[in-house]
Amino acid sequence: MPRSVNSVASRARRKKIIKQAKGYFGRRKNVWTVAKNAVEKALQYAYRDRKTKKRNFRSLWVMRINAAAHEHGLSYNEFMFKLKSNNISLNRKVLADLAMNNPSAFEAIIKSLK
Predict the structure, then answer these.
(1) Which of 60, 72, 56 is nearest to 108 (CA)?
(2) Among 46, 76, 78, 100, which lies 20 to 30 A Cα-Cα from 64?
(3) Is 2 a domain residue?
(4) Which of 61, 18, 58 is nearest to 38 (CA)?
């Protein structure tokens, strides 16, 4: 019996990887083995950095809240403690946005804490 290979599926798999490697430099964009390695590595980085992005944004929000709280004579941890004890449930993303774009509203929150 002759050997049967599913070249349609094989070609489709290769085309998919080559398409994902579009825009890469040199042989990474058009040589199958090099492109496959580059795309696999890129997908690993993408998975890892989706987690890192969340971490980075949280630290950015903390820095912004800390800077705004210091302007009003509070440290970050004092400010967050008073928020919790006064049952004000605003997350760090919203607080950082208020601190940057609406300082008067942030000041009103601080006055409600004192």
Answers:
(1) 72
(2) 46
(3) no
(4) 18
